[in-house]
Amino acid sequence: MQRLAAGLVALAFAALAFAALPVACGGGVGSSSAGDPDGSLDGLTMPETATFTYEHVELDAPEYPDASCVVEIDTPPLMPAQHVPVGTDVQWDSNPPSSGPHFPIWAAYQAYATPVPRGYYVHDEEHGGVVLLYRCEDAGGCPDVAAALQAASDSIPDDPLCAAAGEGVRVRTVITPDPLLDVPVAAAAWGWVYRAQCADQASLNAFAQAHYGQGPEVLCGNGTTQF
Asked: Rounded distance, CA 25 to CA 177, Å?
């Protein structure tokens, strides 16, 4: 029997308050040099954001005997969210990272053929995005695995927040190879990590749907593809 080991979603929202704020995300980045230490935000119009507070709770998960390989889900302790200059070497507490320091700008919500640096995609997680990852050692690029991750993204319903932003984004997902993984397939959302020995479609879909849109910032402005 295969086991899906560690927690299902349990994010208890307290004091939910949507407020249009003329500031950027993750520790108050704006136009100041303190919030934009490397100048990477120059000329970028930062969209409005709504904020909320929440409680991160860890729960035991049931067994999933139908999983096609070993799958693990974990809820690492949340690291402080703060902006660091692009290129900073950050030591995260999980692989893949699911919280903590990140670059001042995030990756555009799309699929990539080459790796997105982790400092960018952790910022996507802070915005409530789900990042779908794979480590490919095949010169052909592992198209079957990439297709399974795309299917997991496609399983998420249309995001009205993204539609309202009007930037051509359907959902806040990033699909990317990540050579730093120590498993073939992984996914991450703010405070949650999925790790698997194969692309198990059912559990990938379930993770993507369960942990979508649960970062500490509610934002669907698109990011950058310039890494």
From this structure: 25
Q: Which of 129, 140, 137, 124 is nearest to 178 (CA)?
A: 137
CB 73 within 8 A of CB 5: yes
Q: How many other C-beta atoms lie within 10 A of the C-beta of residue 201? A: 15
Q: What pTM, to 2 d.p., does this model score?
A: 0.75
- Rg over CA atoms, the chain: 17
| pLDDT value at 167 more than 70 | yes
- Rounded Cα distance between 37 and 80, Å, is 18
Dist. CA 168–CA 188, nearest whole Å: 23
Q: Provide the percentage of residues in the chain whose pLDDT is more than 70.
A: 71
Three-class SS of residue 94?
coil
- DSSP annotation of 206 reads H
Q: What residues contact 191, with CB distance under 8 A and at least 6 apart? A: 11, 56, 75, 76, 78, 98, 99, 214
Say if CB 164 and CB 150 are below 8 A apart: no
Interval 73-119: pLDDT, tens: 999 999 999 999 999 999 999 999 999 999 999 999 999 999 999 99
SS3 (DSSP) at 71: strand
For the purposes of burial, counting CB atoms within 10 Å of the CB of 219, is it exposed (0-12), middle (13-18) or buried (19 or more)? buried
